[in-house]
Design brief:
Elements: H1 2-41, E1 44-56, E2 60-71, E3 77-81, E4 87-95, E5 98-101, E6 103-107, E7 110-114, E8 124-134, E9 142-145, E10 158-166, E11 169-172, E12 176-182, E13 186-192, E14 202-206, E15 211-217, E16 220-226, H2 231-251, E17 259-265, E18 271-274, E19 277-281, H3 282-289, H4 296-302, E20 305-306, E21 309-311, H5 319-338, H6 340-357, H7 374-391, H8 393-407, E22 411-412, H9 414-424, H10 426-437
Parallel strand pairs: 1-10, 16-17, 17-19, 20-21, 21-22
Antiparallel strand pairs: 1-2, 2-8, 3-7, 4-5, 4-8, 6-7, 9-14, 10-13, 11-14, 12-13, 15-16, 18-19
Helix pairs in contact: 2-4, 4-5, 5-6, 5-7, 6-7, 7-8, 7-10, 8-9, 9-10
Amino acid sequence: MKVESEVKAKRMLFFKTNIKSFLKVSTLLIFLFISKAAGEGNTIKINSYKINVEFAENNQLQVKADVEFYKKQSGGKILFLIDTSMTFTNIHLAENRKSSILQFVKNEDTLLLYIPSSKSNEKEFHVLFEYTMPIDSLSGGATEMGYWYPYLFNNISKFMIIAKMPYSYSMFFPGILLKKYINSKSIKYIWETDKPLPRLFGVIAKSDAYTESKSVIRGKMLDIYLLAKDRGLMHRFKSESEKAFKFFSDYIGQYRYKSLTFIEVPDMKYVNSQPSFIMMGSIFLDYYKKNLYDWPPHEIAHQWFGSGIFAKQGDLRSWCMFEPLAEYSRLTFTASDSGKVYMEKEIKGMIDEYKSDYESTKYDKPLIETGGSRVTYIKGTYVMNKIAEMCGQEKWQEFLEKLFDHFQGRFLTYSDFIKYLSKINNKAGKAANEMFTTTGLIKE
């Protein structure tokens, strides 16, 4: 019992020092970005990206991003979000095999384009962005490519990536690797997303950085790239990930994408679960290896809730649905082996922690306001458990199946969630709305 309590204490310390702070920062950044792009961001719809990217050994990306978008309203200004480190050389408006230079103003993390007055009433545009962008050092073997192209939040688009780099490097992206060309000096990849996505992150790595494992689960490719040459770790990670993937495929519905990639990134302090592409910091794998934090099933569950059904960035209420859904799904998966007692013990631990550390404090807010805080994870999971109990496990599973079937590839709002739940069990829908919008725990 002493060992178990020590492990639990270490898990809690890990969560509070590594996850909570990141989630708070990311929530703040999202709202800062949204406040800048909200006005113009809703006036256009980006249909597709075709991005040519070349990586040089001086840690610079040279990029030509071909963006097709539809302008919903007339007007001469369009605002994109960008990384502050981008340096733009040219931006062209392409039309009928001709192109004209567009004027633009870069202001830290936004880029304002000026459309010629003669084109201000047109709807369809084809713009080519040319820019350079530095990336972090690859001293650890790999680094993340975050928001490395002009983008909008809450915009679902198709992506094609044509990437070229020296022979000693590799790039990884979500989607399907269509072609790979190799010569003595360089490598060229052509990637394409098999479904439209709200964002596209990537990883650049040294060619010899990773140990790779591939398997086919329920007709889908599961790729794992770990930095450590540790057979035991790879075997355990692969076995447990395959098992969780099978469970969620059967329990919720067929996985939406053709493949799922896990890839370790040494300088990340968190796990970033993108659609079909999960980037994981080495610190998470270290704690996983020591049995101090069992996170992979939670992130795999996000491939259904968060990366299969999309969360709207900038919507604080999204947190109270997607994080508790993923965590409760993790508990459901583990309980399928360990039994109902495991689930009851975990939920009780969350209730005890909430009452001990958060209830009646300044952190005790309604779940629709708690964002990425620890309260969202523990109280939110408790709420999901109460909803499941009110519905009954059969109806709860039916609710998850129907929710995923209807909203996969789309954004899910809080009101959508409550509406769909109420269709399955009206009493549970009303109770859920009450639990999400009030402080404290529901009275038994």
